[in-house]
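Task 17 of the worksheet. Students: predict the tertiary structure of the chain below and write it out as structure tokens. Keep your answer in the requested format; marks are given for formatting as well as content.
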Amino acid sequence: MINNNLVVISSADIPLDNITVKGRITDEKNLPLEGTSIKIKGARSGTTSNANGEFTLRVPAHSTIVISHVGYQAIEMVIDKEETITVQMQPGSKALDDVVVTALGISKEKRALGYSTSTIKADVIGEAGSPNVVTALYGDIPGVKIAAAPGGATSGVSVIIRGASSINYQQQPLLIIDGVPARNGDFNSNSGRIGNNGISEINPEDVESVTVLKGAAAAALYGSEASNGVILITTKSGKGKKGFGIEFNTYYDEDRIAYMPQFQTVRGPGHMIDYSTLHTGNINASNENGLDPEGWDHVTYNGTTYRSLVKSINTGGSTTPNLYFGPLYDGKPTIYWDHQVRPYLPQKNSYADTWQTAHNQTTNIAFTNNTDKTTTRFSYTYNHTEGLSLASRNDKHTVSLNNTFRLTPSLTIQTIVNYFNWHVHNRPTGTGNLLLGFGGMLGPADNGKWYRKAYKTSLGYKYVTGQNTNSLTPDENIWFGNLKNGTIDYVWDRLANNEDENENRINGVIKADWKINKDFLFTVRTSTDFTNTLTYNKQRSAIPLSLGNSGGYSVGTFNDEIYYGDAKLNYTKDLTKDIGLNVSAGYTAQYEKTLNNSISTSGGLSVENKFDLSATINPVSASSSQGYLLKDALFGIVDLSYKNYLFLEGTLRQDRTSTMPPGNNTFYYPAVNVSYILTDALNLPSTFNYLKVRASYGLVGNYPQQYISNVSYGLSSVGGYPYTTVNTGPYGNEYIKPERRHEAEVGVEGQLLKNRLGFDITYYYNKITDQITNLTLPYTTGATSILQNAGALSNAGVEINLNATPVKTKNFVWNVIVNFTHNTNKLLSLASGQNEMLLGTFDGEVAYKAKVGRPLGDYWAPTIYQTKGQNTINTNGLYLLNYQQLQNVGNSQETGVGGFRNTFKYKNFGLNFSVDFKLGGSESTTALQWLTALGYTKNTLYAMDAAHGGLSYYQVANNGAIQGVQTNATVGPQGQTVYHNGMLLKGVQQDGTPNTVVVSSPYFYRTEFNSGDASLSSVGPTQGDLEYLYVSKNTYFKFREIAFSYTLPTPILNKIHATNLSLSVFGRNLFYIYRTIKDADAEQFTSASGYGFQNGSPTSNMGNTNPSSRSYGIMLRANF
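Model answer:
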């Protein structure tokens, strides 16, 4: 009888000695569960189920056995007689004795762990068709912050675990696949193309589980590579159904551009008053280079006169073609820059039409076969994606083979091979040109579709501007104003030029387990992760060869190789009835090699569009680089247990690395953790089904990158003879040490109310010392800087995970998981005498700093200069800023992140949805600031006229400055024109008198939010940009994904010889429930790195990302 996860097997005849219990364990679909743990409660004795889910165990009469498996609810069974039983496990994250994968691929019972881990299973990873493994984990793991670069399947993803851990060096976690290291690292966006990293290439369809080791104690066995945490990916092995099986999955989804800036749709391009006169003092020019009083130009084209938005290009007319302070939209015929006559109206999808709808099709088929001696899974996955960026697509083929051979009862061999073939055509391009360049910002009167038609001439050459410019097709020259060069150049680059990548990656593992006797187990393992990437870049000839040289061609080959091996001897012994001992010792070695070669034409192509190196005009340009890394380690593990409720583990690792000189390249990383199961040790109230406390301490590292510690000198020559010169760059340091992360954590976890409510709470504190930084040196030393260990960071935080089953009936189950993390980061110290470090600047007017006593990533900016406690206004009516006393206007690190996931199941219907959130943390929203400067955004409608709050004024000249004078009259005292778009800024002049100077609203927005009018080195009260107003708090709650599914009933499945067949619809990145940044995707600002800084450079703006998108799709899964 099974009741509330307690199974009682009774009989009138009860033996008094040990009895044998046999059984078969299945999952919720009645498939065998291999590797299920069956143990006697309160003792270490136990066994695991085989590939058929079967087990045999000798137990004392009247004893209780505990059956547990990763991702399933544990079951306790009271055994009173010899019996053969069948137990069906039920999914759930509330298992009492989950078996989890830990460092070095070692599986351990979760109850024995003295540190926090989080594991996500395949069903969560694959339920909403996520393009990569990590993006499926948004909001699901406490202590982990995920930031994916918009751009789809080809873009990288950043993972930050328990706060920032380094000022200048990589913060990405170590990636382990099937127990061995794999290529990962930070992703980059070279040449404007959005790159990827190793973890984004892993096929989600082949992943069984993802486990995150967050603390130093959990990751200490990885030593110098574990300062940023560890992600353990276990691939599917095919264990489960006995005999032959087939798994099939296919899904299709579309991505549509989302979260666009909210443009104003009231007025279009232009300026009613010549912007330049506000600088020259020429108040006689009342329009823009001859525009009529309403702001229109008039041009003649093909014998007909039309009104035009701004002056034509070849007249040298408009100085401000991108400003949107012009005429109101009226729907009347107007000639546009592409020579087309259209109604003068705002375009519905002006910016969005610069992109395309993305399509993604993924199909996976896997074959499994389980016998008494072998377990095999072969999988093939094909993925085709058409990206959001124009002409962006990729085709990816993935093959996975996982074999386990039981050669003898004591010897098992496992081989795992994963092969990736990936062709990427035109990676997505970042929006830098489109949002961070005044020449490319596409306003609401424009439309991306027009640029897709006009980017090239009918002969295939690049567009030509100006009436008098040489061209083979002069009638097609673009000579009307308001053309956005940045946009049309972007379209040319996307549609005319081609950049192709062909990547082949293979990672494989061979592992042997030799059970020497009942106490000793020897494991040896070797692996490789090899990636070869070939790139071809074809730059189309932009002009005819008769008019000049253009075009180009380059090829490159890039190899990344990792070779790894380890060996481990394990000794297990019950020292007494109550005390168990497990000791392991081992050795690991790893060799990494990179080889990069590229060659390109120079000076253009001698034959138009001949993409061959032989077509170079000048000698070809070539480059080559290579790098090597060797590291090895010795490690030891000691586990002690007492009555299966008290566990103590100690580990030690000795590392050596070639990144530092011999004699200074050996380091030690100890760790210890303890776990105490209170419910087994004490007589607690029955409310508690499971209660555990734990504590741990560990030390891990982050060694310097290859070659940076080397002391090197440059070569120069005199009269052709080389000689060694001084080092005019950074100077190495042969005594540099790894950054070291000391971390302590305590936690409590439990299950209550018959396992209907669970919790896992962790407090941690880490201190990262010996920060590797560069100390600036005077040039007289012969170097610009020297590498040093100086500085320390700390993170302190709380991680909370709650799980509950609020409703559970025969036909309906509701499960909910909630997690939350609060982290406080602090820079404890820098080099002696140094109190702050400049990480970078935004637009030259916002400093991004690391300051002692503060979290990393402070924004410091000039604010408005104060005179007698009031804002100070200059003679032209604008604010003066104080550049001598910068103020802290925000910090990029959030105060909390988290999420919650709900799962509903009614009979054969399922509904899952998740929400994640971020609390606080500021971002420099530079793009939104510049859109304001141009008059694109809705807030710039304020003061556009009297109806919108504008003041009436006329202009006078005063000591070389143009000043607005407020008036109620219809004309100025000397006949001056009266305007109605004035603003009077509250404050005083520098002499303390109240401000009376009225400025036009276009002048205010264009000047106060412009790009870099001053700099941080400015002295005294200076007119600058109010950039600090666009350092914005970034809090959001996002409805991340939803999936609705239907599974065929078991009787129907049996008729078609299937074990599962389900159809689902899903959506991802759907909408914001709440956000403080309204005019963009709140995640877009931190997608390049976890905290807006990467290798010393600020990245928390919309510089080089792609637009975000919503995804909608349909999925079919079947098992036979």
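Marker's comment: Residues 1-16, 274-288, 312-319, 1086-1101 have pLDDT under 50 and may be disordered. DSSP finds ten helices and 66 strands in the chain.
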